[in-house]
Design a protein that fits this description.
The chain has about 80 residues and is of the alpha+beta class. It has one domain: BolA-like (GMP Synthetase, Chain A, domain 3), CATH 3.30.300. Helices cover about 40% and strands about 25% of the residues.
Length: about 80
């Protein structure tokens, strides 16, 4: 699992100018939910990025989701994005 989170970090850093990133796996909080699957993650991205903060928030989120498109279709069930200053 930690390797996969590192893969996500690498993918984002490769495609977006990011100063700092923290990826939190919140999957354990959703075990009792109706559509919970142990194969799909609930993650929270905490990103510091001068570049992302320089564009509209919606555009920044769209860019992140575009980079993670394949992951969102296969391995990520829920994605929370926090852009920190």
């Amino acid at each position: 699992m930690k390797n996969y989170l590192k893969d996500i970090e690498s993918k984002l850093k490769k495609n977006i100018q990011i100063d700092e990133i923290k990826i939190v796996d919140n999957s354990h909080k959703h075990k009792g939910h109706r559509f919970f699957s142990p194969d799909k993650l609930h993650i929270h991205l905490k990103i510091k990025s001068s570049f992302l903060n320089s564009i509209k928030r919606l555009d920044a989120q769209k860019l992140i989701m575009k980079v993670l498109k394949e992951d969102l279709e296969s391995k990520i069930h829920a994605l929370e994005i926090s852009l920190e200053k």
